[in-house]
């Protein structure tokens, strides 16, 4: 990077201020300056198509959110201990996206806070502590959510009251019924938690298995596992931080693909299109039980009027601009285009996902062996062609494609042609 004095200076400032805990993307990090729609621009105004970031779901710098925040900031911003109409407007608007039994909302600031509170509520409701999560799950950065995030630890260890199960994976295993296998593993974990004296409090699932490698097929994939937990008196917490707010194209929430009824739904990331806000939607009897054991829940910034303004603008835009339909159509278009790049000698082993949440398994050509080195080479090659994309899964070989939902056919063409070029150069000649 020594050829760019601006970059050298920025890196030095970063290191001096943020120290060792700071994490950056790419060997040659990007100095980002501005963004609009699905595109971001660096300090030299070089454009990058953003297929990585699922936070700006309605598009980067969307004027509806910018204006709503600015307007509300000039009027009132305070905590939720007062009665403020716009906060109630948002709560009602958000709850209208859920079935009738999920009729209470608690607003927080991050997905981690939402999952942390959901764990506490599940324990209050069931009187039990045992939690089941998938082997490579990520659910947050607080103490209790780090405990249910084995994917964030090199040894994937979990505390004594937590059990992990493999995700419902079908490509590498060749499993003809991954939902049944998943349910079997969950049943065994329930029995094990009961035998250990913890009992089953809840199953927490990211409904598109983002960190585990992106799995959502066939429809109803997790229904039997969820039924096993609920039949045993445990709760099902749908973590919608990644797939929520229309991204899957099949409805507002990822759990809709699975024909299940969550007891609680946690959400965050795209909720404010970048304004930090999150929440839990839950059955009122759960919120009642939790509150009866303490003094309710207070969060200084959670559900503030600025967040409500941003959140309302996001929901109005998703519906007003037909973004869920666009996610479905563009997702199908992208998956078809990516499948067109498969074939003899190709590193693209599998293409899966729903709407604009796509996983592309990068494999050793002609095998189902994960190829993390090829995935990394592809990501860096795409970056140098102005396309940003990340990787996920335990082997780091699954491309994670999650562009803003305003993604267009010409964006898709740009991405597919860059991918054809880079993936083609990494594959083996047929
Ligand atoms: N759940 C899932 C599925 C996530 O992907 C994340 C963030 N990557 C979180 C929870 C935590 O959200 P936050 O970073 O806002 O605390």
UniProtKB/TrEMBL annotation:
Entry cofactors: pyridoxal 5'-phosphate
Pfam family, one: Aminotran_3
GO molecular function, one term: pyridoxal phosphate binding
CDD domains the record matches: OAT_like
Top-rank taxon, per record: Bacteria
UniProt keyword terms in alphabetical order: Aminotransferase, Pyridoxal phosphate, Transferase
Family the UniProt entry places it in: Belongs to the class-III pyridoxal-phosphate-dependent aminotransferase family.
Protein name: 4-aminobutyrate aminotransferase-like enzyme
Species of provenance: Palleronia aestuarii
């Amino acid at each position: 990077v020594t050829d760019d004095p601006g970059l050298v200076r920025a890196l030095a400032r970063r290191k001096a201020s943020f120290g060792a805990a700071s994490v950056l993307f790419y060997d040659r990090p990007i100095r980002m300056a501005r963004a609009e729609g699905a595109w971001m621009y660096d300090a030299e105004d070089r454009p990058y198509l953003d297929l990585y970031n699922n936070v700006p779901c309605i598009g980067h710098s969307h004027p509806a959110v910018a204006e709503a925040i600015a307007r509300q900031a000039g009027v009132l911003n305070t905590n939720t201990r007062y009665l403020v109409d716009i906060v109630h407007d948002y709560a009602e608007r958000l709850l209208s996206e859920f079935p009738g039994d999920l009729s209470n909302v608690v607003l927080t600031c991050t997905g981690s806070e939402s999952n942390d509170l959901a764990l506490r509520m599940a324990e209050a409701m069931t009187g039990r502590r045992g939690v089941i999560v998938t082997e490579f799950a990520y659910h947050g950065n607080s103490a209790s959510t780090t405990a249910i995030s084995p994917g964030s630890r090199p040894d994937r260890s979990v505390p004594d009251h937590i059990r992990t199960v493999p995700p419902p994976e079908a490509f590498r295993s060749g499993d003809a019924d991954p939902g049944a296998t998943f349910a079997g593993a969950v049943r065994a974990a329930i029995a094990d938690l009961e035998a250990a004296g913890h009992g089953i409090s809840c199953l927490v699932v990211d409904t598109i298995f983002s960190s585990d490698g992106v799995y959502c097929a066939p429809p109803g994939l997790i229904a039997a596992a969820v039924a096993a937990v609920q039949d045993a008196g445990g709760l099902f917490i749908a973590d919608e931080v990644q797939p929520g707010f229309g991204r899957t194209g099949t409805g507002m929430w990822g759990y809709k693909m699975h024909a299940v009824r969550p007891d609680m739904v946690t959400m965050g990331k795209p909720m404010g299109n970048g304004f930090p806000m999150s929440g839990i939607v839950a059955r009122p009897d759960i919120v009642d039980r939790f509150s009866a054991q303490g003094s309710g829940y207070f969060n200084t910034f959670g559900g503030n009027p600025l967040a409500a303004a941003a959140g309302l603008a996001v929901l109005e835009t998703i519906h007003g601009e037909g973004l869920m339909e666009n996610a479905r159509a563009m997702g199908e278009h992208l998956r078809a285009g990516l499948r067109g790049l498969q074939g003899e000698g190709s590193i693209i082993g599998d293409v899966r996902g729903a709407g604009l949440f796509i996983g592309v398994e990068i494999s050793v050509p002609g095998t189902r062996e994960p190829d993390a080195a090829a995935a990394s080479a592809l990501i860096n090659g795409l970056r140098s062609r102005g396309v940003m994309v990340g990787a996920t899964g335990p082997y780091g070989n699954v491309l994670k494609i999650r562009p803003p939902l305003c993604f267009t056919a010409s964006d898709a063409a740009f991405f597919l042609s860059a991918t054809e070029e880079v993936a083609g150069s990494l594959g083996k000649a047929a």
